[in-house]
Design goal:
alpha/beta, about 40% helix, globular, single chain, Probable phosphoglycerate mutase, Rossmann fold, six-stranded mixed sheet, about 190 residues, His_Pase_superF_clade-1
């Protein structure tokens, strides 16, 4: 039995454009992000998902709601804190230039309260394991965050092209079958190119 999961990165925000690390800061979509979500919703109009999950951060929740509205999705959106972005600690709200200026070029080696990749993968794996156990053979839509998605793809499907930065409102599709994961679509933004 195959469970199909489409994972979407939220639409763009003012902090995305400014190059600021967002982490778990609760930043809203900007107008372009709302338009990206509308276009993705139109792309997905012919699709049927059994359930829609979103991170609790407003940029993901708003993206999920716009998509669900466009798809006329009948189900209530569910939220789960385990699919939020990796916490950035003291680096949230800063640009790379500001981080280097404040902490030096080796800032990634410092203890700045940043959630580790292992911590992100642990909560993400727990969430996905529960999901496939609860909804076997279903089609699930998740709206989450770029860093979270890349870490999970790297863990679940190491040969997928997870090194590429995810674009806002991109779709990545993973399948769970026979206790293994595969990735059939990565970072697709066809809806923004039409």
């Amino acid at each position: 039995m195959t469970t199909r999961i489409a994972i979407i990165r939220h639409g763009s925000t003012a902090w995305n454009k400014a190059g600021k690390l967002q982490g778990s800061s609760d930043i809203p979509l900007d107008e372009e992000g709302r338009e990206q979500a509308r276009r993705l919703g139109l792309r997905l109009m012919g699709e049927t998902y059994d359930i829609v999950y979103s991170s609790r951060l407003q940029r993901a929740k708003e993206t999920a709601q716009i998509i669900a509205d466009a798809m006329q999705h009948p189900h209530i959106l569910l939220e789960d804190d385990r699919i939020r972005e990796a916490g950035g600690g003291l680096t949230e709200g800063t640009t790379e230039e500001e981080r280097v200026s404040k902490w030096g070029s080796d800032w990634k080696q410092l203890d700045l309260g940043i959630e580790t990749p292992e911590e992100v993968v642990a909560r993400g794996t727990e969430f996905l394991s529960e999901l496939v156990a609860k909804y076997p053979g279903k089609k699930i839509l998740i709206v989450s965050h770029g860093g979270f998605i890349r870490k999970m793809i790297r863990e679940l499907v190491p040969d997928a092209p997870h090194q590429h930065m995810l674009k806002n409102t991109s779709i990545t599709e993973i399948l769970h079958s026979d206790n293994s994961w595969s990735c059939h679509l990565y970072n697709c933004v066809q809806h923004l190119e039409d």
